[in-house]
Structure prediction request, 766 residues.
Amino acid sequence: MLKVCASISLFWVVAQITSHAQGYAPVGAPAGPAPAAAGMSAPTGGMFESNTFLEMASRAFDPSSDSMDFENGSFAWKGRTFNLTSQRAFRARFERFLLASPTEEEESYAMLMDDVLQRLSVANDRSDDAILETWEMLFRAARFDTDGGNSTIVANQVFNAWRIRKEMRGTALTQRELADMRRHQQTVVANRALMLEKLKEKKQRESVRMTSEKEGNSEHTTFPTEGAFRALELAETEAKLIAMEGQAALTGIQAKLQMQSQIVAFLVQRRYQHALVLSGFYQLLFKGSQQQLEVGKGELKSFFPNTDMVFTVDMMAFVANEAITDVNKGVVAVNTAYAEDRAIIALERLQETFFLGEYMPELNAIPVEQRRLLLDLYRDMLEAVELAEAKDYNGVAQYAERIALIAKDFPKMRVLSSVETAKSMSDMAVFAASQYRNLGDIDKARAELRQAIDIWPSNPSIREFQQETTKLATAGSQGVQIFDDLYQRGGHRGIYDRRMDLGFALAEDPVRRPLLMEVIEQVSTIDLLVAQSAEALKQGDPYVAWELLAEAAKFDPNDAPMNRARAELAPRVADFVVYLDRAQRQAAEAQHAGSLAAFLAAQDIYPASRMCREGIERQSSALMAQLSVQAEVAEE
Amino acid sequence: MPPLKPAKPRKPASILIGFSLLFSLLAVALSSGCGDNFSDLEVLPTESYMKKPGDFLGNTYTIRAQIDSQVKWEKGVGRILAVLPESGGSRLPVFVPDEVGGNLHIGQRYEMRARIEAGGLIYVESLRKY
Prediction:
């Protein structure tokens, strides 16, 4: 009953683990207690090999550049980290680029933007008409799909700055009027104050002459009220003037901040051309003292670490120009690598260049055919990574071959070698599981099997193991009867031939299991001796071969393969065999002298015979003992 | 009646011859009677003996052979030698009792008088070099 339970348990584990590995069973379902040891085939644990392969596959098949970090969604360029978004989103944009072909419209747009930038340069005409004309060109640029409406944003920013400047001119006029009014009011208030002072002095003189007169006359009460009113008017004018001055300053700062913010935004969005255009307009609109940055210092700081310099709009333009230069160099590097059959390098550099200059027309310098091939390579590598993660080694090997055809710099042999190693490790674990199962050590068999599945879930050997286990589980209940029958009939060879089935069936049988092991060992020894005999015969030494077979016959004289070998060999050593047989027969009849004579005769045929040497020693001793007894009797 | 001739006295020479003859006959008789005469014994048929030693039990044979090796020795009992018969064939085991054998060396040739004892044992009764 225990055996049957063990069989069913192992079978259930095999099915469960396999279904886990293939994703058919819920992950949370427990599969029995985990074994303490990982097993003898891989002391470091099955996942070691698996992880090693995965790391290798990740390195070999990762088409991304080192500067791209999809885990954190960032792209590092000159110390600056861009938001890369998710890998899936980037992949979509990148594949769209690889599938796209350059159009005439894009070329026109590139020329227009170059023209705009050229017009904004310091060396060119910077008259109001020229600037206005350049500003109008932005609306033409905005009509291109490639522009994405960013030129309109630039134009609006510039227009806004112009409007604010106009408003500030109107405000300056009003301020002047208010200042005039304030001066007049100050005069009025000052005259009133002088008159009030004189009247106070007069009143004091009269009060000395006349005591206790009515203090509340009408003039005394009305005169200070008018003064206060005039003072209030002056205060209001002052307040208006201050408010207007503050508003003008605020409006100016607001315009400046808006433009600076937009330049930073363009830079962060990798719209370098628009950042340059807006910088150009900014430098035209604001005087030199206003070039210092109020916003975006943090962004610029990442481009220029460890510096104490004052950040200006020019520095933003510098960074944008650097990026454009890098994109151009990147495109050249991609084309060069591709031309030199370094497709993997070309793909890596293209991704960096693409991300940095995604909105740059310079990327159109990459030919369409090259894009298509790199797209194939990119897709194949991504697919291979997924296969590697799924541990489909056959699929990985297939893709490695395919990629190697496209990219000559792909490390195919390294991948194939790792695949083979992983497969071998899994096979070894299955083999160890079979051995443990046959020995009846179910726990270790289970651990080895789990390890084999961890390394290579789709290993065909696992299915074979499963089928064998099923068969053994079925045969387990019949094993006892079969063993008893064969053992009673002396059918050791039959037991040996069924050793796997019987080993599984008798795993928990304390009586039969030792007998089974003994028979297996016995027949194994016979097989070994028969094999050695065959080898000796091949080397032209039939007498040695015969002696080996004779040795094997001691274990089981009825063993069929051994007797067959003896029958085949007997004619070649007939004379020797005749003497040996005679010697053994006479020895059995206690005819020691006759037996000794036969052994000596056999030894004459094959002097190195171990059987003869031992026989002579045995028979001579027996004979001498017999003679000794006879001599003692005679003396008595 | 003729007178009787007096009997002639016997000559001493004839007496001497008679004694000589008598001694010779005695010597022959003695030598044959002691059993040390190997020439009148059959040579052991080794081939037949090898096939069935039991058929030769009780017989006495002469064996001319060279000592090949000493298989076993026991003090007070004797030694078992493997000898190579002059007539050919494979080596034979012979037992030489202590009282028969003296100094026996490998490679020496001996003419042996042997009796086939129980179990096919070749029991050497006497031997001499040749």
